[in-house]
Each structure stands twice: as C-alpha cells, then as structure tokens.
Amino acid sequence: MVRGLPNQLIQQNNVNITLVGVNGALNSGDQELCAGTIRLLRSVFPHARLQGIHRSPELQSRHFPEVEWLPQIGVSYSQNRFLRRWTNATGIGAAAVGAALHLRSGYGLPSEARTSYQAIATADLVVGCAGGWLEDHYVSIWTNLVHLAIATANRVPVFFAPQSIGPFSRPASRRLATWIFRRACGLAVREEISLDYARSMGLGGAKLRLFPDLALFAEQADHAGADALLTKICGSEIPPLAGTTLMPWSFPGSANPADEMTRYLDKVERVTRLLFQRTGMKTLFLRQIRDDKGYRGDGGLLEQMASRTRDCSIVCPDYLEPALLRGMIARCQAFWGSRMHSNIFAATQRVPVVTVAYQHKAEGIMKMLGLGDQVVWIDSFQPEVLVGLIEDALRQHPAIARHLDEKFCALQAEWPQLQEFLRNSVAQDRTVGQRVPPGSNPAP
Q: How far is the CA of 366 from the CAs of 68, 161, 199, 216, 354, in angstroms?
C-alpha cells in the first residue's frame, strides 16, 4: 500500500511536493501551464514546500521563485552532440537502475542529479506538470518516464495535472507509461482523445477525469504592453493583422521530414500572401519559444518567413510572456496558429481562430471549445482551404465570440472540481501491487 496524505497533513507546512515534466518558461504556453499547476497546488496545499525538476533551473527560478528548482537528471548543455547524448544516457540509465532497485539515495549519480533524485524519491507527492509531454515522439520521454518511475518505485503518490496522453508508438515506453499510470493516485486529461487513449491503455475509474487545459483558466492580457510593442514595430499606423505562430515539426513517419518542413513553410508563405490579397490583412508572426542554453527557440523560423514575406507580413522578433502574447493576439482580427497554446490564447481573447494541428491534442482542445471544424493538419492542409476557413471565421466573429463567452463561463466552473479531484486523489490510500523485483521488466 502507498498511503495517501491525510487531510490534516494537507494544511501543514511540512508537505513536500516535487514537480516533474516541466517545460515551463522555455515556451509561453508551457509557462502558463506551469503557473496554472503551481496555482492549483497552492490552492489545495497552501503551505507546501514546492520543488521542481527542470533542464534550466536558473531560468525557472527567475519566473517561478516560489519553487526550489533542481536540475533535470542527465541534463547536458554541451555543444558536442556525442557528449550531450552520453551524459543524457548515463544519467538516466543510473537513475533507472536506482528506481528498479527502489533506492531513495540516487547512488551513483553526480551530486546535483542525486539531489534531484532524492527530491523525487522522498517527496510526499510528485506532480506531473500540466502539458503534452506524455508521448514518445520526443526522446525526452525517457527522462520524463524515469523521473516518474523513481517516484512510483518508491511508492510516492503521483498525480497528473491536466495532460494529453499518447500516442506511445514504442512498446517499451508504452509499457512503462502504463505501469506508472496504473499506480498514479490521479490522472487528469485535457481532451476527449486523450481520455479515449488512456482507456485503451486499461486506465479508468475514479482516478481518471477530464478537465480543461489549464491555460483556458488564464484570460488576462497585457493590452497596454501590446499597444506599445505594436507601435514600436509598425509605427503610428498599425495595419489589419492576422496573427500566427510557426511549428518546427519533425513530421514523424515521413520518409523525408526535411522536404515536409519545406512544403509546410511554402504553404505558410502562400497563406500569408493570399490573406493580404483577399482581405488586406498582414500576417503578424509571433514567437512562442525562447532561446536558452542548449535550446533553440523559434526565432530562426520567423526570420526566414520575414525574408520571404516582407511585403505582406510583420514579424515580432521577441519572445513574449503569456500575458503580453495574449495582448498581441487580441490586437489581431483573426489567428491561424500552428502552436496549440497560441490558439488557446486567441480563444481566450475571443479572436476568430483556425488551428493548424500537428498532434491530436490541438484538435482535441478545439473540439472541447466547440470549434472542431476550425482545424486543418500541418502535413496536409491546402492554403486556399485554410484561407477560406479564416474568412468564414471573420464573417462569423460575433457568433463565435458569443459562443466562446458561454463556453468559458462553463469552463470556469470546472476549476473547483479540479481542486476537489486533486484533494480527493491524494487523501486516499491506493494499492500499487508488489514491488518490482530488481532487474525485472516493470511492465504491467
């Protein structure tokens, strides 16, 4: 048995909570999700000690100083790809061995990584930050799963804030994820597609619930900052704008991902020119990903599009904090982003939005908002069709705004239900089955 946290302990100062799966301040969408996860935890555990695991603790500490940030196990900032991968593999490998042996010490890891290991293994509760990191398209899934396995193997309750789940295309990662999910005290998903996927993994019951993406609870926008920034970029006369964000997608499953990326950018250019010709709107290219040590943001893509579409576009070269990004989007007449949270930000500002989806999570969120017909796919959309959808959304703007007003009013009512789900999840005992024998496969 893993004991849940008794109600009296929830109100005490000595509850230790460790956040994992945090992308955070590297991405304005994930930055909002991290803020929402912390806000959720503080609302239920007002006096808890919060620690978090992140690849860049210094960056996170500047944005979320209320959390003690520790380095991700196996992280490396080396410019040498071989050395970086070697550090990743040996760090995560050593942590995986420790988890399999149910060690709480982080034996064999460097001192900083050992501190991070211990923060997970000895926590009262480990929380998977809200987001879309529980799928195996990215190699970082193994870092995330090992962090969770450390907690699960040491019988620390694990709770997942609203997530997208899957797909898991590799049997090994799917088995390990299933083993972790089945032993979690609570799993919140953020769209119906993930709910169905989780059920296909054998998950269900009271531990599995559907809630909105946490960014849908944040509507505040920095309108004054946006006005000042647009005036700085455009001068006194700001043209009609259609905002967008770009996605450096890897097109998994494609025989030639580089060619697919080239076609995607060609189509973005075509949409930009068609919009200007047919509506007079210039496309405002906005950044959502910042540069950090060993991490390249999306500025390069924006520079490329600026050189290709200078006569019919405007580029904002700076990374924007979430409230300022919402403010910039609010100044647009329409939005057609390739990044999910920029589209969510558009919806919070009641801006007509069409999503260029690259994964099911984007389609799922749009369906949750009642905008499922406003979605095209990054690998197959036709520029003329996308422009047609944007024009339709512009014509229907008043009706869309009224619909979103009603939808967001209903969504806000789900916040106390999410608080109660977290509170109930961690207050209950749960059975995790037998310990995994050292060296055995942790599959269910």
A: 34, 19, 21, 11, 9
* CB crowding 86-97: b at 16 or more within 10 Å, else e: ebbeebbebbbb
CA 297 – CA 214 distance, rounded (Å) = 23
Count of other CB atoms within 10 angstroms of residue 354 = 29
The pLDDT of residue 441 is 39
Question: Per 3-state DSSP, what percentage of the chain is helix, strand, and coil (rounded to 5)?
Answer: 50, 15, 35
Please give the torsion angle defined by the CA atoms of residues 252, 255, 257 and 262, in that order, rounded to the nearest 10 degrees.
Answer: -140
Residue 232 has pLDDT above 70, yes or no: yes
Contact 325, 288 (CB under 8 A): yes
Cα 121 from Cα 367, distance rounded (Å): 38
Phi, psi angle pair for 434, to nearest 5°: -75, 150
Q: Does 7-216+413-427 match 220-409 in CATH topology?
A: yes
Q: What is the pLDDT of residue 292?
A: 80
CA distances from 385 to 90, 354, 377, 390 (A): 48, 11, 11, 9
Q: How far apart are CA 133 and CA 360, in angstroms?
A: 13
DSSP character at residue 191: S
Task: Please report the sign of the dihedral spanned by the C-alpha atoms of residue 349, residue 351, residue 357, residue 361.
Answer: positive
Compute CA 57 distance to the chain's CA centroid, rounded to the nearest angstrom. 18
One of 3.90.1200, 3.40.50, 3.30.1360, 2.60.40 is the CATH number of 7-216+413-427, namely 3.40.50
Helix (H) or strand (E) holding 128: strand 125-128
Kindly indicate whether the domain formed by 220-409 is annotated with CATH number 3.30.565.10.
Answer: no
Whole-prediction pTM: 0.91
- Three-state secondary-structure class, residue 363: helix
Which DSSP symbol is given to 289?
B
Domain ranges of the chain: 7-216+413-427, 220-409
Q: Indicate whether 18 pLDDT > 90.
A: yes
**Torsion of Cα atoms, 431 then 48 then 177 then 132, to 10°:** 140
pLDDT over 50 at 130, yes or no: yes
Confirm if 210 and 417 have CB atoms less than 8 A apart.
Answer: no
Are the beta carbons of 283 and 309 closer than 8 angstroms?
yes
Strand partners, 335: 243, 353
Q: Which two tokens stand for residue 314?
A: 């405007």
Q: What is the pLDDT of residues 149-171, one digit of tens each?
A: 999 999 999 999 999 999 999 99
Distance of alpha carbon 243 from alpha carbon 333, whole angstroms? 8
Task: Taking residues 324-347, report their average pLDDT.
Answer: 97
